């Protein structure tokens, strides 16, 4: 399978008054076409910094980010990468879903003659076509999350960065968003997922990266994390949540 994203030896150091702080320390990984890769780690492990570097919001102290073979480390514009931070903010609540997406399609430099078709396409992908003319302020949380994903799909990116896509949603609505994420991966879009919901990662992720103190502690499958933790469970299968909780103390900064 083709590697869409290659991250090489990322390091990010912030200069402080008393001492420097290393947010990322020699982080390397790849994401293949259609793969869902999830970042796991405690607060301060480096997850947000990685997303910020790949998304073009932060230039690392050193290292490279290659997208489809092209070095984009210092590039501010990332047309091949869509970003969804989710939440209640980010849209004009008195405008319709279609009007919002037309505005963001223009910002994304989608050619004017193609904008209507592009908006119709992304609304269809996230199953919001039937509410395209409804004001966003009338949307449920689940619909708003799917609209965030639709916005990230404008311009047909190869990679999506999804930050907590089901945060604050009830179980049923979260499942609909998860189904949308899985459908996108099945269509060939690569996804970097951050989530604090272990069952969500267990369900969606092809691979996970355990981060601790800005370093890669483990990189592999969910079953590999469970094996690494080696929890005794009286014969029943251990969960990712149980395994992560056992490993978490090793991931925290001293």
TrEMBL record:
Q: What is this protein called?
A: ABC transporter domain-containing protein
Which organism is this protein's natural source?
Lactobacillus xylocopicola
Alphabetical list of SMART domains matching this protein:
AAA
**Record field: transmembrane:** none
**PROSITE patterns the record matches:** ABC_TRANSPORTER_2
ABC transporter domain residues:
5-238
Highest taxon of source = Bacteria
Pfam families (alphabetical)? ABC_tran (PF00005)
Spell out the family assignment given in the record's similarity comment. Belongs to the ABC transporter superfamily.
Question: Which keywords has UniProt assigned to this entry?
Answer: ATP-binding, Nucleotide-binding, Transport
């Amino acid at each position: 399978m083709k590697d869409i994203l290659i991250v090489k030896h990322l390091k990010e150091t912030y200069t402080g008054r008393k001492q420097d702080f290393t947010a990322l320390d020699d982080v390397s990984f790849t994401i293949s076409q259609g793969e869902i890769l999830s970042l796991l780690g405690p607060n301060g492990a480096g997850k947000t910094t990685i997303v910020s570097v790949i998304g073009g919001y932060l230039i690392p102290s050193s290292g490279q980010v290659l997208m489809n073979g092209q070095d984009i480390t210092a590039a501010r514009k990332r047309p091949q990468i869509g970003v969804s931070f989710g939440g209640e903010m980010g849209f004009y609540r008195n405008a319709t879903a279609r009007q919002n997406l037309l505005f963001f399609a223009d910002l994304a430099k989608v050619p004017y003659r193609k904008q209507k078709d592009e908006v119709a396409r992304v609304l269809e992908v996230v199953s919001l076509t039937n509410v395209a003319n409804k004001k966003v302020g009338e949307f449920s949380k689940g619909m708003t999350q799917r609209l965030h994903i639709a916005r990230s799909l404008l311009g047909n990116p190869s990679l999506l960065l999804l930050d907590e896509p089901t945060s604050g949603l009830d179980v049923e609505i979260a499942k609909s968003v998860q189904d949308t994420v899985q459908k996108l991966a099945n269509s060939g879009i690569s996804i970097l997922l951050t989530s604090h919901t272990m069952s969500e990662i267990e369900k969606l992720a092809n691979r996970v990266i355990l981060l601790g103190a800005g370093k890669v502690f483990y990189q592999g499958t969910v079953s590999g994390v469970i094996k690494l933790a080696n929890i005794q469970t009286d014969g029943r299968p251990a969960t990712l949540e149980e395994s992560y909780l056992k490993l978490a103390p090793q991931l925290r900064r001293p």
